[in-house]
Design brief:
The protein is of the alpha/beta class. The protein has a single domain, classed as Rossmann fold, CATH 3.40.50. It is 43% helix and 19% strand. The chain has five helices and five strands. Strands 2-1-3-4-5 form a five-stranded parallel sheet, with helices on both faces. α4 links the parallel β4 and β5. α2 runs parallel beside α3. It is globular, with a radius of gyration of 13 Å. The termini are far apart.
Length: 129
């Protein structure tokens, strides 16, 4: 199926999502924050899709999204957040180029549906305003 870069600072959630994505047939590259994700990308990891949390220590999800949009514009990105202000930030992530946004907690079926949807839709890069 697809190679997915999973960026999530909560180790239990990261492991749960990695197992679910793996059982769905995907190869998962895991990172605990945006800095680790950047290291994987610099080392030549070529994901078909990225899934990132927004709020993480170090390099956060907005920085990770910006990096992916700049250096890997064809890679669709799903952004997730469980913050109390999550809806506002998720709208911002969508405007910045996220293919889909997910509010935590979410059902695994919803995540897998978002993954399938984003992998099926070619990414277009928006022109700066």
């Amino acid at each position: 199926m697809a190679r997915i870069l999973l960026v999530e600072d909560d180790p239990r959630l990261r492991d749960t999502l990695a197992v679910a994505l793996g059982e769905a047939g995907h190869e998962v590259l895991s990172a605990a924050d945006g800095g680790q994700a950047a290291t994987l990308l610099r080392a030549g990891a070529a994901p078909d899709l990225a899934l990132t949390d927004l709020f993480m220590p170090g390099r956060d999800g907005f920085e990770t999204l910006a990096l992916l949009r700049r250096d890997h514009p064809a890679v669709p990105v799903i952004v997730m957040s469980g913050s109390e202000h999550g809806p506002i930030y998720l709208k911002t992530a969508a405007k910045l180029g996220a293919c889909r946004v997910l509010a935590k907690p979410f059902e695994l079926a919803g995540l897998l549906g978002a993954v399938a949807e984003c992998l099926a839709v070619p990414v277009t890069t928006a022109s700066p305003p």
